[in-house]
Amino acid sequence: MPAWVDEGYREYARRLPHECRLQLVEIPLGQRGRSASTQRAVSEEGKRMLAATGPRQLVIAMDVAGSSWSTGQLAERLASWLQDGRDVSLLIGGPDGLADACLERAELRWSLSALTLPHPLVRVLLAEQLYRAWTVIRHHPYHRA
Prior knowledge:
The chain is of the alpha/beta class. The protein has one domain (3-28, 36-137): Alpha/beta knot. 46% of the residues lie in helices and 12% in strands. The protein has 5 helices and 3 strands, in the order ααβαβαβα. α1 (3-15) packs parallel to α5 and α3 crosses α5. The radius of gyration is 16 Å and the shape is globular.
């Protein structure tokens, strides 16, 4: 990823407290090319993503067809996730989306936007929105609505 992506992600992840810590796990892309099937690549990526999630984790698929949440709704969900005590895995697909197995495993599907976003921007946007939701819960002045 470009340096600005890593810097942006780290900045917001660093701001979150330990009980709401973000841990980025990058899954290598499946092989693509003239002789490689895109569907097979997505399936391989999905298997690796699911292998990186624990059996009790709350899995959320980042999916353009998912529900869009306001900042307030995200803050309510984040508060619920923190009380639930399970780790949360946010699955971000590769350039061709998420495998069907990932969508089936997900308890929730979340859409950041109906717009097509550059893949690297999604992790920065997610980290910022999670930080913003945490500041809403804690009545921190970062979020001014």
